[in-house]
Design goal:
About 35% of the residues lie in helices and about 25% in strands. The chain is built from ten helices and 14 strands.
Length: about 280
């Protein structure tokens, strides 16, 4: 083993070099094992490496990307396995498909490198090339690995209240796939045929940039039924994403004023519209 750095508390850092044994196993340093937990998740990484991360780090990525990104589904999710290192030696088995992907063979040296929130495992020669030219890595895919935004851990919750006869659905916490389904079902419940409008308050929800498709479908269904849907959010990205499905406002007051004008305009149109003339039959 060759150690080329010292890992600091709180971070996965440092570079280690080990030889893969005849069974296809590599050592995960004890310092890394303590941070990753047992089992940890191993999958493909960018540039031909393997990526190891804790299940606590992996699950929010699954919630965030698995229903929206074909790249995540085919590249990361399809190759993911759980690994359980030996408590004594720290050796863990790398499955054959992942060994082929990373081009690490028995008796070859592998580099195990901490990158802050995860660990990369490389063919040593490939690692040396990649570490000299890090700018060549694809930033669009690297976002999945490093997850540059903080991982939200607050559980999803919602409550329904009524104001002036209009149901208001207030949400809080991580908007993952499960949360999207629950919220879609609740919106269907609070908008029976006689309810003309609904307000969805997303101001305390997180991960709105990857709003689940189930929620977007529910918003589209509400609009198709003629229900006026008002969304409350101050997130510009969420505004751009959801404005095609509903009217977006920053405050509840703005939404209520808009609804009053909107419903009043519809009532006036209904009251003053003249009766339709019978179609012309072409008789003079």
């Amino acid at each position: 083993m060759e150690e080329i750095d010292v890992a600091e508390d709180g971070l996965l850092s440092g570079t280690f070099i080990y030889t893969m044994d005849p069974k296809g196993r590599v050592i995960m340093p004890r310092r890394f094992r303590e941070r990753l937990g047992v089992p940890f998740v191993l999958t493909k990484g960018i540039g031909g490496c393997l990526l190891a991360m804790s299940r606590e780090r992996w699950q929010p990525l699954v919630d965030r990307y698995s229903s929206e990104s074909i790249i995540f589904q085919r590249f990361y999710l399809a190759g993911a396995v759980e690994c359980r290192p030996s408590p004594k030696s720290g050796r863990f088995l790398i499955p054959h498909p992942l060994r082929e992907f990373a081009e690490i063979l028995p008796a070859q040296e592998a580099t195990v490198a901490g990158i802050g929130v995860a660990v990369e495992i490389w063919n040593k020669q490939r690692w040396e090339r990649a570490s000299k030219h890090p700018e060549q890595r694809d930033r669009r895919q690297l976002r999945f690995e490093l997850d540059l935004e903080p991982v939200a851990t607050e559980p999803f919750a919602m409550r329904v209240r009524s104001l002036l006869g209009i149901p208001i659905v207030e949400t809080k916490g991580t908007m993952d796939v499960r949360a999207g389904r629950l919220l879609a079902a609740r919106m269907q419940e609070v908008t029976p045929g006689s309810v003309p409008a609904v307000v969805l308050d997303l101001r305390q929800a997180t991960r709105l940039r990857t709003t689940p498709s189930g929620l977007r479908w529910a918003l589209a269904q509400q609009r198709a039924r003629g229900v006026a849907v008002c969304l409350l959010t101050s997130d510009p990205a969420a505004n751009r994403l959801l404005s095609r499905y509903a009217d977006v406002f920053a405050t509840l007051e703005d939404a209520l004023w808009w609804l009053e004008e909107h419903t009043a305009g519809e009532s006036a149109t209904t009251e003053t519209a003249p009766p339709e003339s019978p179609p012309s039959l072409g008789v003079q």
